[in-house]
Amino acid sequence: MALDVIRAVIGLIFSHWYITAAMAGCAVIGAGTWWQWTLRAERQRTERLSALRLSLADLDAMGSTAFEYATRDLMIRDGIQARRVGQRGDQAADVIGRDRVGGVIVVQCKHTTTGNKVGAPVLYQVNGTAQPTHGADIAVIVTNGDFTRDARRRAQDFRIHLIGRKELARWAEDGITLHQLLRLSLPLRRWRRLRHTAPRLTRHPPQREVSGVEHFE
User: Membrane spanning segments where (predicted)?
Assistant: First the structure.
């Protein structure tokens, strides 16, 4: 019974060619309209974000999720195709972007409302996943707080870029681009700015920091 109905429908469609043509035409028009709407919406968002400025007070008042979206929007402002990926199990990546020449920038965001500092364990996490898991050419950690002395040392060893409170003000408030802020050359040299050291981490796990207290939302 069902097979007879299917055959009847197929026969009707092919015996009346204008039905098929009309259906195909509607599909093409619908796809074209959707594509134009998507491009227009993307262009409007890019234009709106081109003048984006965020004060440190604005950023401090945000929650951790809003801070991740703000980081994404600042990257879009700078001409980077960025998307927020942060969620449970994100493997030390909250925002991933691709610049105009295809370089992949992986960002870990750490928002604090108490002025505490990001410690070295975060550096180990980012160093262990940025390139192997996310294909990063450049890894960045951004916070509205600051970094411990040990974290800054590890950043130099791993060649991970750090954006602390002072750098964040220049980026978000003053409008300097991310490439200018981090002094990134174009095109990015794949993984020469990061050194993967996961085997060392397996044998020598990082010790708990005493010099700084980590407390993030």
Answer: 6-35
Three-class SS state of 105:
strand
Tokens 């020598």 belong to residue: 204
- pLDDT tens sequence across 63-118: 999 999 999 999 999 999 999 998 877 788 999 999 988 899 999 999 998 778 99
CA atoms within 13 A on the CB side of 17: 0
Task: Say which residues have a Cβ less than 8 Å from residue 162's Cβ, sequence separation at least 6.
Answer: 140, 141, 147, 151, 152, 155
Question: What gap in Å lies between CA 19 and CA 25, rounded to an integer?
Answer: 10
Tell me the residue length of the chain: 217
Return the ∠ at Cα 164 (arms to 156 and 166), rounded to 5°. Answer: 120
The pTM of the full predicted model, rounded to 2 decimals, is: 0.69
Whole-angstrom CA distances from 215 to 28, 84, 110, 111 are 53, 22, 9, 9
* Cα-based angle 138, 139, 140 (whole degrees, multiple of 5): 120
Structure tokens at 40: 């227009």
Quote the Cα angle for 175-156-188, to 5°.
55
